[in-house]
Write a structure and sequence with these properties.
The chain has no helices and five strands. The protein is mainly β. It has a three-stranded antiparallel beta sheet with strand order 1-2-3, with no helix packed on it. A two-stranded antiparallel ribbon has the order 4-5. The chain is globular and about 35 Å long.
């Protein structure tokens, strides 16, 4: 699967908006469709794996766990 991190675009409410893709970690298959096993958050885009991120700049995998690094509004 492909994991995609997105930023909040200087819009502090975007990471909590489940109808937008900013401030999220997305997980998709080779065709760009939602990967099986995503969180399937009610009334949200099915590609969303996690949300509430400010500006995720990195993603790492260790022992079947996902870690992201991010920064806040002060850049």
């Amino acid at each position: 699967f492909l994991y995609i991190t997105t930023g909040d675009n200087h819009n502090g409410s975007l990471p909590q908006n489940l109808n937008a893709l900013g401030g999220k970690v997305l997980r998709v298959d080779r065709d760009g469709k939602a990967a099986p096993g995503n969180n399937n958050i009610k009334n949200a885009d099915p590609r969303i794996l996690t949300y509430g991120h400010r500006n995720a700049q990195g993603i790492a995998f260790y022992n079947n766990r996902i870690f992201t690094s991010e920064h806040g509004p002060g850049h």
